[in-house]
Amino acid sequence: MRSLAKSNQHFRKAITKLPLGVSSNFRYWGDDKTIYVKRGKGARLWDIDDNEYIDYRLAYGPAILGYADSRVDDAARAGIEVGGVFALGTELEYEVAAKISAMVPAAELVRFSNSGTEAVMAALRIARAFTGKDGHIILEGGYHGLFTEVLWYTEVEDWKPQDGAPEVLPYGEGVPELMKPLFHAVPLNDANAVEDVLKKNHQDIGAFLIEPIMGNCCGLTATAEYLADVRALCDKYNVVLIVDEVKTGFRVAKGGVQELLGVKSDICTFAKALGNGYPISVVAGREEIMRKVGDGVVHGGTFTAHSVALAAANKTLQILDETDALATIQKYGEDLQAGLSGILTQRGIEHSFVGHPSMMGLFFSEKAPVDYRDWVNTNYEFYDSLAPELHELGILVEPDSREPWFMCEAHDVKCLAETLDKFETAVDITIRKQNIKKGCAQSV
Ligand code: PMP
Hints:
Number of strands: 18
Radius of gyration: 22 Å
Number of helices: 13
Largest sheet: 7 strands, mixed
Distance between the termini: 30 Å
Structural class: alpha/beta
Oligomer: single chain
Low-confidence stretches: none
Bound molecules: 4'-deoxy-4'-aminopyridoxal-5'-phosphate
């Protein structure tokens, strides 16, 4: 059994100064389950109890090459020598912007920010300014950061099809109710639902904000036809199509999900993989729209285009563009899926994968869910029971099946063999525990 004695002890100290003992609510896994990290290297990390994990969370995606990649870290060290931030620009901003434009044709003009939240916040502001319309459409199950315009979700866990559209609720307290009318939710892959919303409300809707491979919702994936329909509807109703590539960007293809699924956004946002873990993000888009920045729209920030993060991004992009790193990552994901599938099939467990091999959702249902409402029909209880067993054995996956597994270049054959071996053990333990539970229930 893994010991979390030091993490537990640290938690009791941390909670006295930090709400939930951490700096992001999602890092709190329970008073006796919250892990504190000592260090990460490649595809592995070690906690303060010296437990070793093969990591498939990768900070929700940033470590595309692996933790502490020496090529990127050397570049970041050179960035330190530049001096930080100056409340003035540096030449490297142009160079990195040009690299992004070359890799992503929709990114004609580029602005840097620090986090995904900031980039998406800017994207919506630019879209509102360009169209003169304040509302936006988001997919059910979509997540786009921690700001009030998008902190709304559709409740599907207790939802039944006969109830009509699922209820829209704020993500917790402190989200002003007055933001709610700006928000319109539609199910994925249903272009008619988009048209209905636009027919009724197009005078008020300036943006469709979409993550075509839903990195916060199981990796659910838009079909190419749906994206083509959405593109046409946005053009018809003067709506800016914002493709949020915070997770998919520089991961699922060199040109991101736009290249993979053949859609061109008006505005797109990038963060995570862009800097291999250094805090940097991008809002980019069509020149005509992006020129609103500085011509009516305010954008900036004290730490934007910080010399360390910018140098790291420059190197990361160079590696992703000039080497076969992404092909390596994809192949690892495919091999992993094949291995997991073999283990599950042997035991007669129905399963499916969605998303991209570099960020995949694993489901316990024969048919993969097609939208968030459909996720309820998967056996997510099995996933919820399996994930803690994997943690015990040193395989770090997200406890919630809605968050995909992430691959990086540093995942190698050794990781694969070890993962499959431990996955097999974890599945058997989960089945055994479930059978015992069932047996107990029957004997009551
Ligand atoms: N958009 C998407 C698609 C994301 O996945 C996230 C973060 N998970 C964000 C925006 C917000 O990014 P950040 O956490 O860097 O603010």
